[in-house]
Amino acid sequence: MPLNLQKLYSRFLENELLRRIITNASYLLSATGLSAGMSVFQSILAGRLLGPANFGILGAITQFTSVVNRFASFRMNELVVRYVGHYQENGDERRAAAVFKMGALLEIGGSILALALIWGLAPLGAQFFAQDASLADWFRIYGCIILANLMFETASGLLQIFDRFRVIAVATAVQSAITLTLIIIIFFAEGGLTAVVLAYMVGKVVYSLSVTVVALIDARRAWGGGWWLTPLSLLKDERRSLLTFAFSTNLSSTVSLVAKDSEVLWVSAFIGPVQAGYYKTALAITNLLQLPVSPLPKATFPELAREIARRNWDNVRYVLRQGSRLSAIYSVPVTLVLIIFGKWLIETTYGPEYLPTYSALVILLIGYTFVNIFYWNRVALLSLGRAVFPTLVNFTGMVLKVSAIFLLVPNYGYLAFAALLAGYYFFTVGAAAIRVYADVRARSQLDVAR
Predict the structure, then answer these.
(1) Where are the domains of the chain?
(2) Does residue 368 surpass a pLDDT of 60?
(3) Tens of pLDDT along 23-36?
């Protein structure tokens, strides 16, 4: 092995902690890579089949359900990783089971609320986001995937705790394979929007149910068949911190929905489905940049939570530093390649009618590259017990971004949305990363002083 490659191997793989993160991430990456490839292909087929306008409507239907569901959810995967992981690490299995039970009950309640909201708000969603009131029933029908998603976040968090990343990876790949197969059939049968929506639904249902079932089996294996009878009163001393964490992450998720996770809805409402179709295409292509980095936060979170609980600050700093380097090695060159060959890629895949996508793509790539390099910002803050900080920063960023929408969009169209999203990422991710470094330094110095 050449000397330079040996040094690179030594830097990234000889540390046991980082090796474990990369191993777990590799399970997700293998599936994510396969899934992303299939997702891009299905996006191309759907885009060519439907055209920019209907492609934008498809994005509005799917993102409407996602936004409402996340509004009512509590990001239970993060609570489960943080607290179930803590109790498991300390051998307190009854409290671990109680936290999992509490998370499942809260998520089920939130999912039922989300379904009710979707059914009630569907006419408004169809009118404002799809600009076609007759599509209200399809907003409702797609929203029914929440019935398969009742406790998906809680289940996903438990699988992370038990290092069952391979299960998540397989479920991800199966979902994408099923959806792609159906889209190919629809494409050659020259189907329409209705068939494509149903294809997306089938894949989502299979994915959610498979993850939930495996998590329940693992819970039974770890805590016995009666784990669900564990009294929640075991958590009475931690109830305040648990609920603060849950509501903080829920509020943070809500802020994120407004600020960055409902972009297609914003574009469709302000400018129309055609522009939303262009924007949805740009976001789909940025998945190539996010592809190998997207599994890292999920794989890093449990490890950071354990090391911080053990107060191993050298390991924490090592993971943050090397994680950023590893991400930059991939992200920077890929961004340059996509910028250079972006127009050719868009015209070759989606077709020349999608070429207006390119300018938005370039702007988004810059923002997502910054996010990739500091991919650990949120999970590090949660591991440090700073669930409120990202909420405050994201809220500030949201207010600034939404205010600027009304000023810039009338003149610059969907390009303004791309620029504002990139700016939002620079502000929020940058502030979070600075806070993480400051916290780690202060706590490690305090431990040394003791």
Answers:
(1) 3-445
(2) yes
(3) 655 555 555 566 66
